[in-house]
Amino acid sequence: MSAATPQATPVTPGVWVLPSQGNGFAVDTPDGVVVVDTGPGGRKTDNMIAALRVVTDSPVSAICYSHGHFGYNFGVPQWLEHNAERGDAAPRLIAHRNLPLRYERYRETEGYQMILNEMQFPGISARFDPVRHDPTETFDDHLVLREAEPRIELLWVPSETDDALAMWLPETSTLFTGAAVPAEFIPNVGTPQRSLRLTGRWADTIDRLAELRPEILVIEFGDFVVGAELNLKRMTTTSRALRWLRAEVIDRLNHGMNERDILADISYPPEIFDYPWLSHAYGSPDYIVRDLIREESGWWDRNPTSLHPSAPAEVARVTFDAIADPDAVIARAETLAADGDPQLAMHVIDLVALGPDDEPAVIRARKIKSDLCRARSKEIAPYPSKGLYKSSGIRLKQGIISWEGVVQ
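The structure corresponding to this sequence follows.
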């Protein structure tokens, strides 16, 4: 392994964090190594295997899937091949019982999933081959993987996904949380294109993990955290923030407010949110607000026009025809952008930019909107929003508003 290759990071004797898509995990036992996650495949998974082989020559006896999201276990075939090349038995492949259901849904919607990922991570479809290898074993709530020391327990921890698991090593009070305890950002609830993640359930999961009082907390991304009190504070403040958000949203729903009203009205007090591990680097409080509203609401935005809408092309044409001076609309948007408000400028430019493809003013408006997307991507904090602004800007620069045919 070259000096440039990522290496295993020791946690306790015989336990390592492995370079993966985020943090992989490995526990050496007399029966072999138990690994959590196999990486996204290709060179990263090769590096992960190489890093393990620097620290132990024990066979890999089990692979656990932390959760079913894109890329975390695309590398399973490489690990199986590695065992076969060494003459070792195939490892057990263990996941929560919901994970095969997720994989089945992803296979059914493979094209759509690739489009969503391309929107959020421009260029990703050229870098990954989505290989989904089903586990050979599943469990429901709790699985004792090994009773003798080192004792290894798998816990169902519904959070970012309903198939997430954590690994608990009681002798050293070490907890690998996978996706259940976020890194340096507020929990990833309500990401713009993803399905519901049930904020209250995630808070319940974090509270249950906090009851373990782990001395060592290995999270999905970043350095592991040492110190029972710090880990307890990290988890309890995170669950408190989630519960606070739910209470505030429910209160406003009970007073008849809609989504836009709530987003404009709610603020996020520093005594709840100003912690290093609740940053907006990936998650965002307003994402969570939207998800909470979706938990309790249907799809209607309370505008009667949207109940049974006309065809988009027809709306685009008549709206454009109704604008007396499209150039004046574009000029107003440019003024707002120059005054430092690209978001408000986007609302204005849409009066023209969503018009018919063959209109010169529409083509010009879309190019301006592309620049506005780029400006917004620089001023917004959450990484998913940055990616969506960037990918939308790329399409708009080409004069395109549809995502049809992006991924073949």
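The mean pLDDT is 94.
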